[in-house]
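Pasting as-is:
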Amino acid sequence: MAKPKDNPNYKVIAENRRARYDYAIEDDLECGIALTGSEVKSLRTVSANIAESYAAVEEGELWLVNSYIAPYERAMFGHEERRRRKLLVSRKELSRLWNETQRKGMTLVPLVLYFNHKGIAKLKIGIAKGKKTQDKRATEAKRDWNRQKQRLLRHGE
């Protein structure tokens, strides 16, 4: 996700920061999104939310479910805010995602919605496994320890 800052087209629209806390992300994948014109205009004004959404493989296609894109006021033909949006991936990737979700019990979690360096809207989804409560506590303890360690090293100099 770390792209050069000098590119004017690259822009993060929405980020699911809670996903890395709730899920153990094993792999991620960049995919395109089938959007209408008013949805793209609304995304340019950075008004979207993917925190409560998820991706699912249904009937041989990949869908983004329950994502929110605010309505664009000046659009002649508006859009539904929480409609299912088709995600664009290759057949090979689609079959791999289906195997991961159906056979291994993984979940497809949207991580970041952004415009790439060409100005095209992309979604990064993570192939994840849900964390248990004790795993979340361990992650939090590790993060706190690293933060404290950095503080001690800074003050020790």
